[in-house]
Design goal:
The chain has 339 residues and is an alpha+beta fold. The chain has one domain: DD-peptidase/beta-lactamase superfamily (Beta-lactamase, 3-Layer(aba) Sandwich), CATH 3.40.710. It contains 8 helices and 16 strands.
Length: 339
Amino acid sequence: MNKIFFVLVGCLPALAVAQTAVRPDTLGRATPRTVGVSTTAQPSKAAPGPTQARSVKRKVVRRPAIPSEGMRAGLHRVDDPLDLRSSVALVVDQDTDEVLFEKNPDAVLPIASITKLMTAIVTLDAELPLDEQLVVTRYDRTTDRVRSRLTPGVKLTRAQALQLALMASENHAAQLLARTYPGGVPAFVEAMNAKAQMLGMHDSHFADPTGLSPENRSSPGDLVRLVKAAYDHPEIREYSTSTELSLPVGRRVVRYGNTNVLTSRPEWDIGVQKTGYTSAAGRCLVMQAAIEGKRVVMVLLDSIGKYSRIGDAQRLRRWIAEQKASQSADVRDSKTKPS
């Protein structure tokens, strides 16, 4: 497969500019703050009357305040028939490994919270008791700037921490799972990389259990292997696709939701999913889903825009359905032709 690189260039008229920071993905609340430009041409005062120029609205162009690694590498310039906003895409038949769709399939990029699928696998492989009660400490705090409701002193089971990490992308929960692993975080990260090699993920590397580090990297093909391995665990299938979890925190009950809105849509049959976002990785999404009777693994990396990865998944789903309908029509036509 060939590598194709390109540069995305946006034209930004310099009249009104608003710039803010980018926050990491967690709890489904983070949004990429953008450099936004909106201009309106004013009527000319020198030419009053019927020929006076009317105001013209220009299209707002939005780009991430901090470009992703894929954007800096020029991956977004590659065209694809579905006009995806993700610079990297790979869809594979889960049962036959047939590649159904690909875009920049050889790219190796930061994967953000997609990392938590490996965090879950390593946790389950250790066969630690899921009903064991864990206590959050200050050592479970992470470097992201999004406030976590898992503050020091909060108690929860390992199963609840696993569900929060997968469903709500809770960074402190992932860090808690690694800290309570035999040997602590260093041993946990070592186990993550060992498992990656065991699965044949030779383009991948893990530096932390949350995905906040840009050193957590992988390729689309490796992530297909990761999703398949995650699918083999009933707990990951259940926790990653659950839509909510209520957790007692002190005197109140905190309700968490799923960072992937597709898990609550009846037209989707999702077996495993994980979202991810950092400024270096862009918006990411991996899923195992059944579409038109076909089990597929879908990988979307480095998407621009808060909901763009969801839109890309919807486009791919419709495209797969259209391909099947077209194939069925061809079969019917071949049967009706005279021999």
